[in-house]
């Protein structure tokens, strides 16, 4: 999937019309429709604005909502692993301290 496919999928899923996006962003509905149907995509700053109005992450516009592609999900997963490593290290340290006491 490319930008156009992800963008149109999110618009359909969340029921965003070009007119409503125009009203919320100030970007002409005709321009939004061109991005949805053509090979071009908006500038990054514009994509950030659109994602913000739609209440989604920029990654969802470019990567879609596919398992393993969401940046927030990947960050959460990495933080969970780091947290588990820290907890394991603290347990080992605590058990080492109690053995030496």
Q: What low-confidence regions span 5 or more consecutive residues with pLDDT below 50?
A: none
Order of helices and strands: HHHHHH
Helix content: over 70%
Number of individual domains: 2
How far apart, in Å, are the first and last alpha carbons?
60 Å
> Oligomeric state of the chains?
single chain
**Rg from C-alpha positions?**
21 Å
Envelope shape = rod-shaped
Strand-residue fraction? under 5%
CATH class label of the largest domain? Mainly Alpha
The total of helices stands at 6
Largest sheet: none
Mean pLDDT, all residues: 80
CATH topology of the largest domain: 434 Repressor (Amino-terminal Domain)
CATH superfamily of the largest domain: lambda repressor-like DNA-binding domains
Question: How many β-strand stretches?
Answer: 0
Q: Which class best fits the helix and strand makeup? A: mainly alpha
Q: Specify the CATH architecture of the largest domain.
A: Orthogonal Bundle
Summarize the structure in words.
This protein is an all-alpha fold and 101 residues long. The protein has two domains: 1-65, lambda repressor-like DNA-binding domains (434 Repressor (Amino-terminal Domain)), CATH 1.10.260.40; 70-101. It is 74% helix and 0% strand. The protein is built from six helices and no strands. The longest helix has 30 residues, at 71-100. The model has no long low-confidence stretch (mean pLDDT 80).
